[in-house]
Amino acid sequence: MKFSTLHTHTTFSDGKHTARENIESAIAKDMRSIGFSDHSFTACDPSYCMLLEDYPRYLSELRSLKEEYKGVFPVLVGIEKDYYSEIDKSEFDYVIGSVHYIVRGGVCYPIDHTLAQQQTCVRDAFGGSVLDMARCYFEMVAEHTYLARPDVIGHFDVLNKFSYMPESDDRFIAIAEESLRECLKWCPVVEVNTGGMARGWRSNPYPNMNLLKLVRELGGRVVLNSDSHNKDNLDYAFPEALEYIKSAGFEELDFLTEGGFEATKII
Ligand SMILES: [Zn+2]
Ligand SMILES: [Zn+2]
């Protein structure tokens, strides 16, 4: 099965390689297409994202690459929209909706950068309650999905990146599941994301197996994305992730084309 990834970061945000280098790598890997999704501007932490003044250059460079590779290799121009960003959706072929920060009391807490920052957030913003932080995060994911209507729900349970969250606690599971049910009303496509595996944090993709099974039970669909920050990782652990998707009961994987999502039988 030929793979694709819609979740790719370049030197426009915190990726290591240019868009062209990523396209050439995807071609060399015999993938079927590539989509770019650099980080939208977040005022609370401009260190890793695009600045507002970068958007025109991002769009013009990627659109011209898309044109250049037309008929040779499909290129899509998307963005990873953070909860704390405003974007004009009409400028992009697609939008991945993600939550990377919790802002409380004027303090911006990154939730997927380091374990220490996550622990600080729990201590200072949620009185030491991991469950309260989880509730806040998952409510934000649902709210973001409702308000932004992304095309793809990004790394749904990235909060579990450092295995600091009580993933097997019934209360935690209920919080995450309630959010997922709400999200799927507004965006039926969830990404299976191998980014945490590429960085050595997780042995399985996001979302976890229980949540992925719930996506299927609720009639949601899945795309397989690497959340790559390096051209060599565009298809990181994709064969394993495909088995993971199959074991959650999915028989189809979705691929985004110019005409919208197309379901392809998993073989
Ligand atoms: Zn992200
Ligand atoms: Zn990303």
Bound molecules: zinc ion
CATH homology group: Metal-dependent hydrolases
Q: What is the correct CATH architecture? A: Alpha-Beta Barrel
Low-confidence segments = none
Beta strand % = 15-25%
What summary fits the major beta sheet? Answer: 5 strands, parallel
Sheet/helix structural class: alpha/beta
User: How many strands in all?
Assistant: 11
Instruction: Give the terminus-to-terminus CA distance.
Output: 6 Å
**Main sheet: which strands, in order across?**
1-2-3-4-7
DSSP helix count? 8
Work out the count of structural domains.
1
Backbone CA Rg: 17 Å
Keywords:
single chain, 267 residues, alpha/beta, TIM Barrel, 5-stranded parallel beta sheet, two-stranded antiparallel ribbon, globular, binds zinc ion
Description of the molecule:
By secondary structure, this protein is an alpha/beta fold. It has one domain (4-265): Metal-dependent hydrolases (TIM Barrel), CATH 3.20.20.140. The chain is 35% helix and 19% strand. The chain contains eight helices and eleven strands. The protein has helices spanning 19-28, 55-68, 115-125, 130-148, 170-186, 195-198, 209-217, 238-247, and strands at residues 4-5, 33-36, 75-82, 94-98, 101-104, 107-110, 152-153, 189-193, 221-225, 252-257, 260-265. β10 and β11 (260-265) form a beta hairpin. The relative contact order is 0.14. Residues 7, 9, 80, 227 line the site of one zinc ion (ZN). One zinc ion binds at residues 80, 98, 100, 154-155.
